[in-house]
Amino acid sequence: MGVVAVVLAIVGFIAGSAFRRKSAEAAIGSAEEEARRILNDAIKQSEQKKKEALLEAKDEIHNLRQETEKDLRERRSEVQRQEHRLQQKEETLDRKIDNLEIKEEKLAQRSKEIDARIEECDRIKQSQMDLLEKISGFTKEQAKEHLLKLLDDELTHQKAVKILEHEQHTKEECDRIAKDIICHAIQRCAADHSADLTVSVVPLPNDEMKGRIIGREGRNIRALETATGVDLIIDDTPEAITLSSFDPVRRE
């Protein structure tokens, strides 16, 4: 009986050990399976987040591209309007110059007529003086009338000289005004056109995008300037950056 009990005890111990080992192996296998499941879930979540981030970035880039293209279209339309206004200014200036030239021609013709009148007056005066020298037998009344006529001719001559001086002054003043108009128009048109051709303002959806473009310590700005050959001007203007370049292709 004692031997049987010992044998049963040994068999029970061995069976218990085998059961515990099986249980431990099963637990280890279950833990490994759970670990693999958690790892797979984490990988799937990471891939999903990566896809979502990529889609969000693509949408943001697409929206930014559309806004930029819209702004470029508006800028081109504005440039075309400014060119049209510039052409109108040039046409108006041409008309003013033509009018000034016509006035100058009229003044020149008027000056010639006055010169001819002055010459005629001088000729008549000299002729009358010669006549007076020859005919000393004039009566007092005749001499008086003749002198009055000579005085009247002299006054006419002086009036003609005054008119000529006034018209000459008017011509000089017209020339000065024309030069001022031309200089002002050239300076104004050149300044507007230069600014339109060298600078472009790009709108941004928000200031966060502006911060991304700047990058840490401005590294992105330097990299973009080096890659594109365009100067990036970052100022206090909200949700916008300015591109500066004499090359319109690079700037666009």
Report the structural category.
mainly alpha
% residues in beta strands: 5-15%
Q: For the CA atoms, what is the radius of gyration?
A: 51 Å
Give the termini separation.
104 Å
Helix-strand pattern: HHEHHEEH
Number of domains: 2
Number of helices: 5
Strand order, largest beta sheet: 1-3-2
Main β-sheet description: 3 strands, antiparallel
Number of strands: 3
Give the helix level as a range of percent.
Answer: over 70%
Nearest-integer average pLDDT: 70
In one word, what is the shape?
Answer: rod-shaped
Low-confidence stretches: 190-197
Please, could you describe this protein's structure?
The structure is a single chain. The chain is mainly alpha-helical. It contains five helices and three strands, in the order H-H-E-H-H-E-E-H. Strand 2 (231-233) and strand 3 (240-244) form a beta hairpin. It starts with a helix and ends with a helix. Residues 190-197 have low confidence and may be disordered.
Characteristic terms for this protein:
5% strand, 252 residues, 3-stranded antiparallel sheet
What can be said about this structure in brief?
By secondary structure, the protein is mainly alpha-helical.
